[in-house]
Amino acid sequence: MLKVPDHQVAGHRGDGGKLGPLVDDSGRFYKPLQSDHRGDTELAFYESFYSNTEIPGHIRKFFPAFHGTKTIEASDGSGPQPHLVLEDLVAGRTNPSVMDIKTGSRTWYPEASEEYIQKCLEKDRNSTSVSLGFRISGLRVYQNSEAGFWQPEKKVVYSFNADGVRSALRKFVSSNLSLGPNVDPDGLYASKVYCHRGGILAQLLQLKEWFEVQTNYHFYSCSLIILYDRESALDGRAHPKVKLVDFAHVMDGHGVIDHNFLGGLCSVIKFIRDIVDEDNECAKCEVNLGLKENGFYKSSTEPELDHEAC
Ligand SMILES: O=P(O)(O)O[C@@H]1[C@@H](OP(=O)(O)O)[C@H](OP(=O)(O)O)[C@H](O)[C@H](OP(=O)(O)O)[C@H]1OP(=O)(O)O
Ligand SMILES: Nc1ncnc2c1ncn2[C@@H]1O[C@H](COP(=O)(O)OP(=O)(O)O)[C@@H](O)[C@H]1O
User: Fold this and answer.
1) What is the position in ligand 2's atom list of the atom closest to the CA of 20?
2) Count of alpha carbons within 13 Å of 299, Cβ hemisphere only?
3) Residue whose CA is at the smallest distance from ligand 1 atom 21
4) Any residues with CB less than 8 A from the CB of 308 and at least 6 apart, and which?
5) Stronger pLDDT, 303 or 47, i.e. the higher one
6) Are the C-beta atoms of 226 and 101 separated by less than 8 Å?
7) Residue 120 Cα, ligand 1 centroid: separation in angstroms?
8) Would you list the domain boundaries of the chain?
9) Which residue from 12, 108, 219 has its CB within 8 A of the most atoms of ligand 1, so it is best to mutate?
10) CA dist., res. 192 & res. 232, Å (int)
11) Nearest alpha carbon to residue 249 among 45, 58, 29, 68
12) How far is CA 234 from the centre of its chain?
């Protein structure tokens, strides 16, 4: 049985008669192949990425598994349409908290039309993309069974400045958002989600190591998805994950570092590190996990990070 995903936080949505992704109950996410070059580009990326034997296994895990394409009834009622068949990143989680971070200060790619570049430039300048190297495109934070999710409206998210981004990243790991906007977010889950062994920070550092050397692809307008399970966060099983999605504008890297994405990634890491640095529980974790050396964060060299409590 296909349905519009409950946990989608950004992008084109399939409700209200529009074209958007669908999910089934066996853990698959069906993204419509966009009719212009975007669909072809994204399909070509998945095929290239999963046939590229140079991509290390510990890097593949940052990408949704790819199961080819399938023609299914589209969400907008337009009849059977081809879709990418992907792993549903939140399958099996009851109330996942999810954030979409569009990474890179520049979302337009060199070969784009002047009209498209202008449209992207406007969004990049009017958001934190240019100033911070990334922007939050959407988020959804689970609170409790009574309050449900905190999910600010799109126009609120799009108006975040640097302080808004900082606050949203802290709210993402807080338990008291339902008490109202005047209550300081408690950051209760920061240690379990951001700096936990195998947590978001360690995964981002691992991804950064790859971006420091990979020159095959340039990831324009691509998003980092960060997610975790709040309900089990306090007993150390938050299962925090970093994933990459949206490859509709991935270009050939031509042997050059993707400094646009890498710069944005470093900036995301810095924002999360600042939250971690202020957190007492996290301070213990950093020492235990050896994330820091002489006061500086070092990149993880562990090929597989596990989820044991630190
Ligand atoms: O169609 P629009 O104007 O809503 O723009 C889409 C963006 O929505 P936004 O307006 O920024 O909320 C949308 O952004 P989000 O994923 O919602 O952040 C995508 O960038 C989409 O591009 P593509 O499907 O990845 O090629 C964008 O589509 P295109 O700009 O490629 O048409
Ligand atoms: N494989 C996936 N599994 C679960 N959710 C996904 C997956 N891919 C994307 N999403 C959700 O859909 C949103 C939009 O995805 P994206 O690929 O950027 O679409 P668009 O091209 O319409 O912008 C993401 O922010 C995320 O919430």
Assistant:
1) 22
2) 12
3) 11
4) 197, 198, 236
5) 47
6) yes
7) 9
8) 2-284
9) 12
10) 10
11) 45
12) 22
| Tens-place pLDDT, residues 111-162 | 999 999 999 999 999 999 999 999 999 999 999 999 999 999 999 999 999 9
Distance in Å, CA 11 to ligand 1 centroid: 6
**In the predicted model, what is the mean pLDDT of the chain?**
91
The predicted pLDDT at position 309 comes to 40
List the residue whose alpha carbon is closest to atom 18 of ligand 1: 137
Q: Whose CA is nearest to atom 27 of ligand 2?
A: 8
CA of residue 231 to ligand 1 center, whole Å: 31
The answer to whether 29 touches 86, Cβ cutoff 8 Å, is yes
The radius of gyration computed from the CA coordinates of the chain, to the nearest angstrom, equals: 19
Rounded to two decimals, the ipTM of the complex is: 0.91
Which residues make Cβ contacts (< 8 Å) with residue 171, sequence separation at least 6? 141, 150, 177, 185
* Reported CATH class of domain 2-284: alpha beta
Q: Which atom of ligand 2 is nearest to the CA of 9?
A: 27
Task: Please indicate whether residue 157, judged by its CB atom, sits closer than 6 Å to ligand 1.
Answer: no
Helix (H, G, I), strand (E, B), or coil: what is residue 258? coil
> Residue 310: CB within 6 Å of ligand 2?
no
Cα–Cα distance between 111 and 107 in angstroms, integer?
A: 12
Ligand 1 centre to CA of 195 (Å) is 31
3-state secondary structure 82-137: EEEEEECCCCCCCCEEEEEEEECCCCCCCCCCHHHHHHHHHHHHCCCHHHHCEEEE
Ligand nearest to the CA of 227: 2
Those residues with Cβ within 8 angstroms of residue 178's Cβ, 6 or more apart along the chain or in another chain: 143, 144, 146, 147, 150
Alpha-carbon span 169 to 227, nearest angstrom: 12
Ligand 1, atom 19: nearest CA belongs to which residue? 11
**Token pair 């490859």 in the structure block, residue:** 247
